[in-house]
């Protein structure tokens, strides 16, 4: 199987992941119905986000935590949603790529998802 090593690989991975997400029964509605995501805007941001995280190519400048709070305020983003997000991400990585960067993509996503899930839970408690 292919190694995850180029910007094009990241674009392919991210596209395939959000194809799954959009059609997913558990978390798809956050994107389709709650945030009503403009995919032509969102996907390039996600390419840059992952390029920055994995290749150290600083093309993403943003605050990934902050963008999720207003969504969480509308519909609680539960730990189980984040676990499901990670399950879909891990499956998409493993279906398409192998090697160190592929492992790192899974590892980093899991850590961020855990932290994000925790922050969303705390935000709901102090509201
Ligand atoms: C159940 C879990 C999640 C849901 C439902 C979710 C939902 C969303 C939605 C709807 C947006 C788009 C907001 C908009 O443009 O209107 C977004 C943006 C984003 N998400 Fe998530 N997300 C989840 C988990 C994660 C995780 C685990 C990560 C990181 C590993 C992540 C990283 C990002 C980033 C980088 C953006 C773009 C932020 C920006 O605009 O600068 N998300 N998310």
TrEMBL record:
| This protein's UniProt keywords | Heme, Iron, Metal-binding, Transport
Q: Where does heme bind?
A: 68
The GO terms this record gives for MF are:
heme binding; metal ion binding; oxygen binding
- Tell me the Pfam families matching this sequence: Bac_globin
Q: What is this protein called?
A: Group III truncated hemoglobin
């Amino acid at each position: 199987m292919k190694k995850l090593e180029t910007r094009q690989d990241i674009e392919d991975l991210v596209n395939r992941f959000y194809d799954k997400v959009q059609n997913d029964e558990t978390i798809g509605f956050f994107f389709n119905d709650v945030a009503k995501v403009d995919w032509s805007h969102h996907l390039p941001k996600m390419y840059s986000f992952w390029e920055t995280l994995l290749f150290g190519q600083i093309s993403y400048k943003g605050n990934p935590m902050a963008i999720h709070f207003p969504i969480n305020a509308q519909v609680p983003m539960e730990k189980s949603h984040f676990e499901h997000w990670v399950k879909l991400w891990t499956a998409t990585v493993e279906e398409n790529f192998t090697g160190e960067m592929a492992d790192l993509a899974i590892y980093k996503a899991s850590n961020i998802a855990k932290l994000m899930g925790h922050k969303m839970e705390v935000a709901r408690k102090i509201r």
